[in-house]
Amino acid sequence: MAGREDEERQRTSGAGEHAGWARELLEHLRPAGRDLHRVVAWLAGTAHATVSLQDGTGRLLAGTRLPLDKGLVADVTSGRIASAALEDRGRHLRLVPVARSHPARAAVLAVARATPFDRRVADIVAHTAQVMELLLAGHESTAAGNRLRRATADLRLAILQLLMVEDTVSARRVAAGLWPGLLDTDTACVYVVESSPAERDRLAEECVSATEEQALVVRCPAVDGHVIVLAPHDTAGEELRSLVGHRPGVFLGGSAPQGLARTAAAYGQAVSALAVARFHPQKAALYAERTRPERLMDPAELHDWTAGVLSPLDTLPHHTRAELLATTRLGLEFTAVNTAKVLGVSRNTVRARMDRVESLLRTDFADLTVRAAVHLALNSQVGLAEPPPGAGARTGAARLTGLLSGPALRTWAVDLLGRLDPDGRDLRRTLRTWIAAGGNAERAAQKLGMHAQTVREHVRSAEPVLERELLAAGSDLYEVVLAHLATGDLDQPLLHGTKPGHPDSPVHD
After folding, report:
1. What domain range includes position 120?
2. What are the pLDDT digits (tens) for 398-425?
3. Quick one: DSSP state of residue 4?
4. Range among 264-268, 324-328, 383-387 rated most confident
5. Angle at Cα 345 formed by Cα 340 and Cα 346, nearest 5°?
6. Angle CA 271–273–278, to nearest 5
7. Do 75 and 107 reside in the same domain of the chain?
8. What H or E segment, with its residue span, contains residue 455?
9. Residue 171: closest CA among 161, 159, 189, 185
10. Is residue 59 part of a domain?
11. In which element (H, E) is residue 95 found?
12. Pair type for strands 251-254 and 284-286
């Protein structure tokens, strides 16, 4: 009877111990505990052993490296032997295969102890190997999913970059494999959704879901908090607005519908609208929601003037011309670094292309009035792809002074700049001087007799009044520059072919 009681007590004790270590081992399969290094550390402590997990090539995956016979490891991982147990120089060693059914991730678990392996420790090692196999499979699946997501994101960016340089044929060819029909459209809108960089990835996934994968969703390579969405369907705007509406700190800017070859211009429009959205109660704005100066100009005259300004590029091959125009359009909106990131080229390439355009136009992009005029021409080229009625009918060359002298445009300019008049700090004078100084606060401060920081504060104070970003060069600033030119507060820019004394040349005091 006493013997039977001892035997029963041992079985009960063994079952309890098994339940204890099994529960601990299973804890490592919970989502918060899936870590090979933690499993190895647990096994080392539980088995009072030194533990090593390495793949078939000998690369240590976790634990402490043990001196193992390469041939024996190869036999275990290949399946020539089921497992191995041996005693070597006073240590007891056991080798167990892990994920042998998957050659790509086959590994061997090696456990070394100073004492022999009893049944309990042997069971623990065997079950731990099974848990490790599940973890390796999970890691491989996760890694494969991450690689697929990265490849898909890179492909989306590549398509966007092709569209940015007007290579729609290649963009459609690349997109057809994964998103059939996505770019089978004549026009599309570009949206830019802004959030914090930490929220950007989740927001991008929500944009994909909201548009039901019927839009090109790209994490902006230039601005960490921006997601770019190119949507061929009008419904995407409403879907994105609803996505933005209930999220604090998230804003949406959208372009007017543009041809796919005008994606770069549409992107600039979306960024410009985004600046307005930051001041908008609904946190969203579209480019068409605001009166633009080019809309107030005579279309035929604007078309002819634009053709004249950009004519030095007409002799270039189509692809080269499109590449230079797209780069310059973005380069006038953003820094060379950000333009390079958006286009997927080096910043030196961006500068070289813009220098070439500057040379062909025989002008100076350091002058903000020149930049505003060229920006107007580039945007007009996008908006007036087809010659309007009356284009090319005039005998003389169209001039910027004529474009800016129309009553509608002058009224717009007076109303816009007049918003600054009530401020007692004379923001209008500061802004005018700052623009004339090429946006350089130090030079403007010298002319005004104030501190450079005061100039920046005045310009920054003018932004919400004008509902335009000014310190970041781009469409908003160029509109304000055109307003100053229309009211006569700034000298006309010097463009190619104009000479001192010409109506479009600067008037010097």
Report:
1. 14-142
2. 788 888 988 999 999 999 999 999 998 9
3. H
4. 324-328
5. 75
6. 100
7. yes
8. helix 452-466
9. 159
10. yes
11. strand 91-98
12. parallel
